[in-house]
Amino acid sequence: MAKYLISFPSAAMKVANSELDAVGRDAHAVMREAKEAGIYVFGGGIDETVPPVLVSANGLVTEGGYPWAPPLNGGFTVLELPSSKEAIAWAARIAKACRCDQELRVFGFDPDS
After folding, report:
1. Which range marks the domain in which residue 98 is found?
2. What total number of domains does the chain contain?
3. Tens of pLDDT along the chain (113 residues)?
4. Is residue 52 part of a domain?
5. DSSP string, 41-91
6. pTM to 2 decimals?
7. Is 57 within a domain?
8. Is residue 3 part of a domain?
């Protein structure tokens, strides 16, 4: 089975403040279903209150991430599924719960990492 990364950037979530509680409830319900199905690997969101730092091979720390790259933010989930068809179905369930489209990628899992 392959692992799939399902994610969205923060800017994709255009939800009224009055709807945030429902989004959280619905998203957590989908994650509980994934856990019960035994396909949940891990998930969460980038803490956007903590700015990134760039760490070089010699240990030098620079404020901010790669200056040429778009910011990494938003939420993500990794699920282990038997097919891309099932990954698309789960991504659609997450999109419905989060009220925003989800990006779907095969996660390059390295068992030696």
Report:
1. 18-46+71-113
2. 1
3. 999 999 999 999 999 999 999 999 999 999 999 999 999 999 999 999 999 999 999 999 999 999 999 989 999 999 999 999 999 999 999 999 999 999 999 988 788 88
4. no
5. EEEEE--TTS--EEE-TT--EEESS-TTSPPP-SEEEEEEES-HHHHHHHH
6. 0.88
7. no
8. no
